Amino acid sequence: MNNFAKFFLGFFFIVIMFDLMLIDRKKNRTDMINLFATFNKIDGLNIGDNVMISGISVGFVNDIILENSYPKISMMVDENLNISRDSSISIQTDGLFGSKFLVIEIGGEEEYLKRNGSFSYVEDSILLQDLLDNIIKIGENNKL
């Protein structure tokens, strides 16, 4: 194999790898519905972060809006899911310092959230600083 053929083979490989890196890995938005949740604080949650049910990714954070001084999360989730109106949503962290994601806990009601529906029960993000402050307070109280 001469140098000319090796060059084009390498160039072709780089173009294919670059193309694979730019592929949009999100689901087609036509088979998803938009849902909303308003939190007090969302520290570290970003657009594109996963929405999960029982450890399975069912959607992603679509947008973050500030409405009446509170962060409102717009998320796209699979339209085939039956998410009851009394379901809750919380912001979780992957490990101690990992990325944030949303977790939906399914409720028991027979009525389901529809397109552009909102979660009534939310749990804010826990800050590491708040967690450490609580541990220090518990330690100080036990010392007395």
What does this structure look like?
There is one protein chain. With 144 residues, the chain is an alpha/beta fold. 24% of the residues lie in helices and 34% in strands. Strands 7-1-4-3-2-6-5-8 form an eight-stranded mixed beta sheet, with no helix packed on it. Strand 3 (56-67) and strand 4 (70-78) form a beta hairpin.
Show unreliable segments.
Answer: none
Q: Strand-residue fraction?
A: 25-35%
Give the strand order of the largest sheet, numbering strands 1, 2, ... along the chain: 7-1-4-3-2-6-5-8
Q: Main sheet, how many strands, which sense, barrel?
A: 8 strands, mixed
Oligomer: single chain
Helix/strand-derived category reads: alpha/beta
The overall average pLDDT, rounded, is: 85
What is the rounded Rg? Answer: 21 Å
How many domains? The number is 1
The N- to C-terminal Cα distance equals 79 Å
Helix content: 10-25%
Q: How do the helices and strands follow one another from N- to C-terminus?
A: HEEEEEEEEH
- How many helices? The count is 2
Spatial shape: flat
Number of strands: 8
Helix-strand blueprint:
Layout: H1 3-21, E1 32-38, E2 50-53, E3 56-67, E4 70-78, E5 88-93, E6 100-105, E7 117-118, E8 121-123, H2 128-143
Parallel strand pairs: 1-7, 2-6, 5-8
Antiparallel strand pairs: 1-4, 2-3, 3-4, 5-6
Compact summary:
The protein is an alpha/beta fold. The protein has two helices and eight strands.
Features:
144 residues; 34% strand; eight-stranded mixed β-sheet; alpha/beta
